[in-house]
């Protein structure tokens, strides 16, 4: 028998620690629209929670979100970002992030609870999603328009820029940081 979730569940509160996992293939980079806040297109990501560490969390999130098994994991980036999430903050808003690149095996089996329209995209498509996020941050798109047809989840634009997967001017990155 499953015990109903209560308001004191650890998943109700933010632990301020998150992992992101880039899964590349010959078809591009695996991304999807998030079903739960924050809105946007993103690679696999999630809170550290009780996973035991960033590497364990990365393995678990890949399996939970897209049904793949990680065979190799490489840390690409580690940094603090002042981004909000869908949980209740327990201190200053933001997360310590560990961004990994993963090699995986298995068949893509996305979580209906967390993933909408998974797809493999190439750098030019990634850049187009970043431009849509920039338009939202610059108020050329309303929140409703961005939710209807999202760009990249804002926190991912700077990560992907820092990893040289996007080319975004510093001023635009700073503007996007205002909608984290």
Automatic annotation (TrEMBL):
InterPro entries the UniProt entry points to: NUDIX_hydrolase-like_dom_sf (IPR015797), NUDIX_hydrolase_dom (IPR000086)
Domain Nudix hydrolase: 14-146
Pfam families reported for this sequence: NUDIX
Domain of life: Bacteria
Protein name: 8-oxo-dGTP pyrophosphatase MutT, NUDIX family
Gene source species: Streptomyces melanosporofaciens
Lineage, opening ranks: Bacteria, Bacillati, Actinomycetota, Actinomycetes, Kitasatosporales
